[in-house]
Amino acid sequence: MSSQLSSLNQWVEDVARLTQADRVQWCNGSEAEAAELRKLMLASGDLIALNPDTHPDCYLHRSSPSDVARVEHLTFVCTEQEIDAGPNNHWMAPAAAHAKMDALFEGCMKGRTLYVVPYCMGPIDSPLSRCGVEITDSPYVVLNMGLMTRMGADAQARIEREGTFVKGLHSTGELDPERRFIMHFPQELSIKSYGSGYGGNALLGKKCHALRIASYQARQEGWLAEHMLILGLQNPKGETHYIAAAFPSACGKTNLAMLIPPEGYRQEGWKIWTVGDDICWMKPGEDGRLWAINPEAGFFGVAPGTSAKTNPNALEMLNRDAIFTNVGLTADNQPWWEGLPGEPAFDWQGRPYDPANGPAAHPNARFTVGAKQCASWSHQAEAAHGVPISAIVFGGRRESLLPLVLEARDWTHGVMLGAAMGSETTAAATGAVGVLRRDPMAMKPFCGYNFADYFAHWLSFDQPGVSLPRVFHVNWFRKGSDGKFIWPGFGDNLRVLEWMIGRVEGQFEAKDTLIGRLPKSGDIRTEGLTLPAAAMATLFEVDEARWDAEYQAFGEYLASFGERMPAKLVDELNAIRARLKPAADLRKAANG
Ligand SMILES: Nc1nc2c(ncn2[C@@H]2O[C@H](COP(=O)(O)OP(=O)(O)OP(=O)(O)O)[C@@H](O)[C@H]2O)c(=O)[nH]1
Ligand SMILES: O=C([O-])CC(=O)C(=O)O
Ligand SMILES: [Mn+2]
């Protein structure tokens, strides 16, 4: 027996003893295994079969009402030194965290089955991929990991060959919010999660491994683990450019990744290919470009708002072999959420629908589905070497200030634009919704180490001989004085992607401004849109005084990290501020 196998076996044995599980089941990822689990869950009521005529092999799962989103206040990064986790993370000393968690795990699987779930994040034969094993007592987690990762025998074989793997230990426990913690030990490549059965808290391959642990590893090994979608944009000449985009949770990654071009663009031959919708691992290749893989094999997407109008590709892939979590039901047992036609009969908690109780679907209701069911799924998503990235896009949900699109002058400025990201909060995490918060690179909840070191890591990619992607910032969410979104968004976002790729190919000039490069009037095509007269002007308005205030706050944020913050980033910001201030004063005097 290889030593890896024995270390895996040893760990499983130790956990089985600690948790006092009734039985241990090694998962091989077969269809028979999944069918057996579904049968078990249908019998226990953990799954409800949906209408077999409209939704064959589709199921509904209802979470405990107090367990419907990620819990950032209960999520910890446990490095030896607190400063390595940084002010951007909650921290606990590893020894204290292990003691706390092991006390919770002690005897917690009595009467339950312990599932051993080996998985590979990324194509099974890719050097960019990394493996892990999740131990869980939740069959829901096993089913979801089966859809979201390359799970089972092949992954186990790679682990036995390779040696290192991330150890993730999970129990739903009693689903008591007072006994719930998500702990990360990046220096040990391990995760302990207790008391939640929900998505990002429980499917440990996703946010816990592929972002928090992987970002830490990536820094040491010279790559990047990011909260980004990856799409291929094919132009009428048949050439495909790949774009990676970071938007915070519930800010449009899945929608952009599956975009269907507006009618006129379709006729010209434009097409979007989906490589990933949530996570991107990228590394400089021998040619100096960044090459990216999607470590996931499925989609765990936000259901509400998904419709034939906003995301037809997603809707179409959800009518078979899918799991729905916390959606409503129609009278004939179809899944229902706000944004779909028809009427709900039951809400996400199984109560007869009553608008007085709020929406029928929980705002963070999700679907889980294998990626291959997506009509726009890219053949390149399985490529071991990944895809070359031409453009990196940052974006947030901002009702004012941020223009529709902005291009960075160079890599350092691009890193600054990413670091300066802010977004209004959404239902993807528990807490108030719609509050502006800083969310650098959409990684605030997911970076497994000190943001100051993270920004330095990003800056370090600018080396002689590299050809880094161009960097952009977008905002689909700017609102007019009527309180409505100005930009139509969704499919029409292609118009903005077209401009970006035009910039990459040297087809368009841009307008240099104090905050970055903006499109020249007319370069973003608006034919076929019915926009209010001044819409484009409003979308690109630059208010120097408000930018100065924004960047003053950003400067204070950077300063809050102290000495560790790279001077290069601070200098970049200060150089911009030095020009903004006089411009703001000048404008004030002119208006004055
Ligand atoms: N106005 C507007 N809303 C959008 C646009 N794209 C997405 N949305 C809305 O944003 C919400 C979330 O979109 P998703 O694409 O699921 O977000 P995500 O970034 O993939 O979310 P996570 O899975 O949580 O990481 C949905 O309610 C969408 O309808 C857009 O271009 N304009
Ligand atoms: O992690 C989750 O639960 C879902 C998700 O993609 C996010 O919140 O960004
Ligand atoms: Mn996400």
From TrEMBL:
Co-factor requirement: Mn(2+)
Name of the top EC class for this enzyme: lyase
Coiled-coil annotated spans: none
Record domain Phosphoenolpyruvate carboxykinase C-terminal P-loop: where: 223-578
Catalytic activity: oxaloacetate + GTP = phosphoenolpyruvate + GDP + CO2
PROSITE patterns, alphabetized: PEPCK_GTP
UniProt-listed Enzyme Commission number(s): 4.1.1.32
Functional pathway: Carbohydrate biosynthesis; gluconeogenesis
Cofactor binding notes: Binds 1 Mn(2+) ion per subunit.
Any one GO cellular component localisation term in the record: cytosol
Subcellular localization, as worded in the UniProt entry: Cytoplasm
InterPro entries: PEP_carboxykin_GTP_CS, PEP_carboxykinase_C, PEP_carboxykinase_GTP, PEP_carboxykinase_GTP_C, PEP_carboxykinase_GTP_N, PEP_carboxykinase_N
Binding-site residues for Mn(2+), renumbered to this chain: K207, H227, D278
Binding site for substrate: R70, Y198, G199, G200, S249, N364, A365, R366
GO biological process: cellular response to glucose stimulus; gluconeogenesis; glycerol biosynthetic process from pyruvate; oxaloacetate metabolic process; propionate catabolic process; response to lipid; response to starvation
Domain Phosphoenolpyruvate carboxykinase GTP-utilising N-terminal span(s) in chain numbering: 10-219
Family in the record: Belongs to the phosphoenolpyruvate carboxykinase [GTP] family.
PANTHER family named in the record: PHOSPHOENOLPYRUVATE CARBOXYKINASE (PTHR11561), PHOSPHOENOLPYRUVATE CARBOXYKINASE [GTP]-RELATED (PTHR11561:SF0)
Function according to Swiss-Prot or TrEMBL: Catalyzes the conversion of oxaloacetate (OAA) to phosphoenolpyruvate (PEP), the rate-limiting step in the metabolic pathway that produces glucose from lactate and other precursors derived from the citric acid cycle.
Subunit structure of this chain's protein: Monomer.
HAMAP family documented for this protein: PEPCK_GTP (MF_00452)
Name of this chain's protein: Phosphoenolpyruvate carboxykinase [GTP]
Native organism: Pseudomarimonas arenosa
Organism ancestry: Bacteria, Pseudomonadati, Pseudomonadota, Gammaproteobacteria, Lysobacterales
